[in-house]
Amino acid sequence: MMHAQRFATMREPDRRRLADGSRAPSAGGQAHSATMSAEAMTVLYRALIDADDRNDPAELARIGWQLFSKACIAQQSHLEVTDLLSELRSAARAVIAGQGSPGSVALLRYVLARNGWLPPAGATPLQVLAAPAVPSRRVYGRYHLAA
């Protein structure tokens, strides 16, 4: 309820600024986040309800499109991450089946290299495990997914 009260006291430009965080990706192919804060979602839902109360079809369409676009981005991101995890699972299973032989490690090395996840040359297993997680640098379509 606190978010709704805060939204009600905001000026219109501030409402739009918060709501604009969920705009659909532009045709330019820029990277977009697949996440949305609970506050931004609350603001959009509140704006949707207000537009409905005012019988403003243009505003309803604009906000509905923002919500739909964000849902599409999240769905696409989910599918692409699922595909990547499936590929990593297959590569890891091949390593286990091949008992760590060089040939069985090749697919895993390829998947890690393609995504920029190979450890630095000369790093020991302990150094790799102790290092902080490195975010993904992979860009799926037009959407960047942070790991």
SSE arrangement:
Elements lengths: L1 H8 L2 H8 L18 H16 L3 H41 L4 H13 L10 H6 L8 E2 L2 E2 L3
Antiparallel strand pairs: 1-2
Helix pairs in contact: 3-4, 4-5
Descriptive report:
The chain has one domain. A two-stranded antiparallel ribbon has the order 1-2. Helix 4 packs antiparallel against helix 5. Residues 1-7, 17-31 and 140-147 have low confidence and may be disordered. The radius of gyration is 22 Å and the shape is elongated. The longest helix is centred in the middle third of the chain and has 41 residues, at 57-97. Helix content is 63%, strand content 3%. The chain has six helices and two strands, in the order ααααααββ. It has 147 residues and is an all-alpha fold.
Structure characteristics:
2 strands; two-stranded antiparallel sheet; about 5% strand; single chain; disordered N terminus; 6 helices; about 150 residues; elongated; disordered C terminus; mainly alpha
- As residue ranges, the low-confidence spans are 1-7, 17-31, 140-147
Mean pLDDT: 76
Indicate the proportion of strand residues: under 5%
**How many β-strand stretches?**
2
Strand-and-helix sequence, N→C? HHHHHHEE
Note the main sheet: 2 strands, antiparallel
The spatial strand order of the largest sheet comes to: 1-2
**First-to-last CA distance:** 32 Å
User: What does the radius of gyration come to?
Assistant: 22 Å
